[in-house]
């Protein structure tokens, strides 16, 4: 057995994900189960959310998990075993008002992992998506005019 190792990762920082994956693989040799469970959301009308914030949400909820998955995947394929799980949200299946960026990122993630599931079948790698309904998560009450504070983490 291995002693636990704490590795910090900002899933929205796409540039550091490959290095973190490499560090994990160098330390443990392989990843048997990858659970993608990071998320970021914002509540607001489409016209009031900046394109910059839309991109941040997409980086955290779509590009982050797929970048990490793609970094770990070659190791799983070479061993012909592994399990990849995406903890998503029901908003990856349906959209609701004032959550356009979040729902779009979650829809994109579902589409990617659905395709990945079909592709990984021949390598005996299991790919699952979990889409729970609404959950209570940490939230900071925003100050007026401070959209960054309205981000849920």
UniProtKB/TrEMBL annotation:
Checking InterPro entries in the record gives: NAD(P)-bd_dom_sf, Sc_DH/Rdtase_CS, SDR_fam, SDR_family_member_7C
* Biological process according to GO: intracellular calcium ion homeostasis
Q: Which UniProt keywords apply?
A: NAD, NADP, Oxidoreductase, Signal
GO terms of molecular function: oxidoreductase activity, acting on the CH-OH group of donors, NAD or NADP as acceptor
Q: Name one Pfam family in it.
A: adh_short
Q: Does the keyword Cell wall biogenesis/degradation apply?
A: no
Q: What is the official name of this protein in its record?
A: Dehydrogenase/reductase SDR family member 7C
Organism, by scientific name, is: Neodrepanis coruscans
Q: Which domain of life is it from?
A: Eukaryota
- Which family does the record assign? Belongs to the short-chain dehydrogenases/reductases (SDR) family.
Q: Which PROSITE patterns match?
A: ADH_SHORT
């Amino acid at each position: 057995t291995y002693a636990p190792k704490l590795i910090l990762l900002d899933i929205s920082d796409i540039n550091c994900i490959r290095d973190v994956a490499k560090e994990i693989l160098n330390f443990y040799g392989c990843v048997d189960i990858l659970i993608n469970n990071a998320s970021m959301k914002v509540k607001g009308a489409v016209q009031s959310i900046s394109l910059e914030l839309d991109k941040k949400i997409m980086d955290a909820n779509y590009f982050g998990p797929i970048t990490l998955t793609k970094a770990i995947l070659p190791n799983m394929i070479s061993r012909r075993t592994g399990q990849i799980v995406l903890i998503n949200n029901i908003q990856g299946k349906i959209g609701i008002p004032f959550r356009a960026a979040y729902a779009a990122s979650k829809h994109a993630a579902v589409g990617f992992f659905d395709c990945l599931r079909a592709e990984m079948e021949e390598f005996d790698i299991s790919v699952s998506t979990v889409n729970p309904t609404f959950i209570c998560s940490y939230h900071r009450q925003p100050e007026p005019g401070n959209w960054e504070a309205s981000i849920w983490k």
